[in-house]
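On to our target:
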Amino acid sequence: MKKILVLATGWHFSSHFYEEMVKQKVPDGWEVDYFCIAHRAPEDDNTITEKQYIRDSEPENFLNEMDKQMYEYPITEEDLTNLGWIYLLEDNTCCDGEIFNQWADNKNHNYEDYDIICLTHDDNYILSDNLFMDMLENNIKIHKPIIESRYGRAKHQFHTEEVAINDIDWMFIENGYSEHVPKAFTPRSSFCFFKKELVDLLPNNRFDITETATGGKLMSRVGETKSFDNHMDLNDWNSPVGTLREWLYNVKPDLGMLNHCGWFSVSAQRVSRYCIEGERGLVSKHQSDCGKYIPMLQKELEEIGML
């Protein structure tokens, strides 16, 4: 039996996310384990009150409607367990790759038991229940970077080509890509999939969540259960993205790892036919993609019949 490990960062606790993610169809011969690695409890007062105004609001547009669907009710730990999630409460340290580290540091867990690992935020709006089927059985088209096309002032932009997922030995797939963004190649790991072979290559089989500019210190909010008020207050937590990007560039000669990387969509960052990623908890809080987010989001939703 082959296995998929899904690790969700438990912070915003969208009831829609936790309900829809476990509805994924699973190919024969595969099984999925779902873990919520929480950095605050779903019953915490801050967790509930921060989204209560959304539940009480009258949506002004389709983005607000999606936000309201995401937080239809305050989900509880018991609800998560009943849905099939294994709930673990861990220290509130820098998320994304860190939730894999926290899961893997548990002596009862071994990443080698899994063929594919998914890291996801819990403010993502899940659009499809066919994700695993498409990845593993339906030979979907994905988009991979063309190494020779590297350009831009920061050298983080690449042209892409569409390939069948079975035609490349993929090791790392993310949700969406936007070539026009100066830091287009940005492995945020907020909805991504990687194989255990990638973890084999990581130093100590863990993600490096430090960053030289921070003095190599673990960024931590241990004991904090309140979200930041301002969008940029959490910006330092993006630093490990650069660390992971440089590792992907250098782990194989001549950017060779990029031959094993891809995206589900090149319509917009954070958007694919499978998932619309929230930003700071909400779809409506988008502050990325240089003004192209809304039209690309509308296009994806129209194609699947949601608009």
Remarks:
- The chain has one domain: 2-303.
